[in-house]
Design a protein that fits this description.
Helices cover about 80% and strands about 0% of the residues. The protein has about 160 residues and is mostly helical.
């Protein structure tokens, strides 16, 4: 009898979790696509400080959206590969032969991320005039300086 009650309890909990996830998904899909918060502020600031034409602003916005989409896909794949690597390394019978292909894929994805960043920089450079691009680099340097640290991994070294 206790066994049935336990199964019923687990079933109810699983159903509740499923409903909460479904509601969260429904809310997130109803969200508007327009920029808000920092993204809208960044667009307005760039348009104002770089004296962008409406065409330039639209092309930069499109580039940012495309860049974000591609980087999210790469980050997701990186996360999956890191999890696979951790799982494989945690196995008591882990071997180099089974780990190396996962590590190779991780390296490939990291290289893809670097390539994507470089591609985006050249796209922005093609959209902006040389003067606007110089100002853009200055603004980007100021923004990264506000973070206080250069990048993840350099947490003990303050930005200069």
């Amino acid at each position: 009898m206790k066994h049935r009650a336990w199964h019923r309890f687990i079933s109810v909990i699983a159903a509740a979790i499923f409903l909460m996830i479904a509601q969260a998904e429904a809310r997130s899909s109803e969200a508007p696509e327009r920029p808000t918060g920092r993204s809208a502020g960044l667009e307005n600031r760039l348009t104002r400080e770089l004296s962008l034409t409406s065409e330039q602003a639209a092309r930069l916005k499109e580039n940012r959206a495309e860049q974000r989409r591609k980087m999210e896909a790469i980050r997701s794949a990186l996360k999956k590969q890191r999890e696979l690597l951790k799982e494989e390394l945690d196995k008591p019978d882990a071997t180099r032969e089974r780990v190396e292909p996962i590590a190779a894929e991780l390296k490939s994805l990291q290289a893809e991320m670097v390539d994507q960043r470089i591609s985006s920089i050249f796209t922005v450079r093609g959209i902006l005039t040389p003067e606007q691009f110089a100002k853009f680099k200055t603004l980007a340097a100021q923004k990264s300086g506000k973070r206080g640290f250069r990048q993840r991994g350099a947490q003990d070294q303050p930005a200069q």
